[in-house]
Fold this protein.
Amino acid sequence: MRLRPDVAAIVPYRQGRTAAADAFKLSSNENPYPPLPSVLEALAAVHANRYPDGSAAAVRDALGRRWRVSPERVHVGAGSTAIIGDLMNATCDHGDEVLYAWRSFEGYPLIAAAHGIHAVTVPVDVRGRHDLAAMAGAVTPRTRLVLLCSPNNPTGPVIHHGEFEAFMRAVPSDVLVVLDEAYAEFVTSPDAVRGEGVLANWPNLVVLRTFSKAYGLAGLRIGYAVGPEYVLDAVRAVATPLAVTDLAQRAALASLEHEDELMERVAEITRRRDEVRDALLAQGWDVPEAQGNYVWLPTGSRTAAAAEVFDRGGVIVRPLGDGIRISIGEAEAVEKLLRSAQEVVSMLPVAPKAGG
């Protein structure tokens, strides 16, 4: 059978490896806490023999109230990653360009390639941050979509509010900018851009969020976008029908109703994240600002060997080319994580730097 050559050349996405019974899986940025009892109770009412509400009306209504927008300005999809693909499909023809920082979310190049879209990348700076001035300069007449990941996955830093506003002023108004805030709930920096604070300012902006991380629903695949109604109508036109299960919709609604309890868990994870980063800095690591539920270790050419050290130490991490991303998981995992990190930092030929 003939396949599209550009698709045949794509290396499929590989999720974080499953951990053995005596190891900790810190490779997929999952929430270590199980769903709340109230969420599990809501799931018991699911009738799996019936199709879900294809419009996810109840979830869109709840999110519309949260964001103070009409439900028509909210789109719910099977995870924010699926929505990124639908946004590309709705805005880009073959040969058009999508622009994003690199290193950033590893799904971006895969999605662009699958849709036949030319990807333009701008390197993150030496601190793992978006270089927004360079990104604005990389916009061309063929640019249709710009992806901004804040906090950046996998390096960790956020985009600051002021630099975001400057970037938006520099970008043509007919270029769609997508602010991917999959880890927004973990952000503690007062300078970080917040989607809810800037959405009304820019008619060419879509904000992405997910229930996978802070809400602990990664296995149910549900995320959402907030933006202009006509843009999200186009997304709905190209999205796979009935992709968001009734199970996921009920879990999202129950999670929103009990958000205060969930945010207590998020606060615990962010405290643990900061403690882990401080301990890594004390070991000699040059760890970038960490504002998600993960930290980034710049291991350069020794990345594969470093991942093996963590593996032997009972910690499954995510090696990504020139560094290792480590999720913040159970409290019991911290000792093993730091013990392996100390072994790795001592074997590196020079002091590790945060640049990607």
Q: What stands out?
A: Residues 1 and 169 are 48 Å apart (CA to CA). The chain has a mean pLDDT of 94. The two ends are 39 Å apart (CA to CA). The longest strand covers residues 143-149.
